Amino acid sequence: MSETTARRGRPATVDRDRVAATALRLFTDEGFGNVTMDDVARACGVARRTLFRLFPSKAAMVWGGSGEARETITGALDAAGDVGLPEALDLVRDAFVASSTFPPEALEVTRQRLCLIAADEELLSWGTSSIGTSAVLVAEFLGRAEGAAEPSLRARSLAAACAAANFAALVWWAQHAPERDPARVVEEALTHLLEGARTWAAQA
């Protein structure tokens, strides 16, 4: 059924995930910079206007899972309530692990996304705000655990380090160890990172 025909009755439903998966295959096979939005629309069999309604840009297709990850981190930290610093560090690790737990059918798409992001400076730059948002969420949580009105320098620094380590671990998984569970890779990376922070937690 064509879009023209569909408009005469009930609007056709376009599968957003299918469109993103098709775009990722094109980007992977032909190079992110060599594929246009028109190319993606043709490959998916949708109108250009429909594609832009789903995704404002090519980068948005690649970073499509970042919103869900932030929501998972936010939910995990909000559910924790008021805790002390030692426990807060474990909860931060667990929140990132939860955000890196993907259903089996999403693993390959996630791997493709991460490989594309790591290989393209434009894509990486586009998503920097997403990583920064996660760091802000964690810094605020650690600030509450400190009992301070505002997160301290240590809390902000540690939060930024955790967000960066989470992303670095996922990229490493995508590029070098796709046979492993990405959540366990993130857990390993953050456990190593937070070992040093326990001295701070004990002294605070």
Automatic annotation (TrEMBL):
| DNA-binding region as annotated in the record | 36-55
Q: A Pfam family for this UniProt protein?
A: TetR_C_14
List the keywords (alphabetical): DNA-binding, Transcription, Transcription regulation
Coiled-coil intervals, chain numbering: none
Tell me which residues make up the HTH tetR-type domain. 13-73
Q: Under what name is this protein listed? A: Bacterial regulatory protein, tetR family
Please verify whether the record's keywords include Flavoprotein: no
PROSITE patterns found in the cross-reference section: HTH_TETR_2
Q: Which organism is it from?
A: Oerskovia enterophila
Entry superkingdom: Bacteria
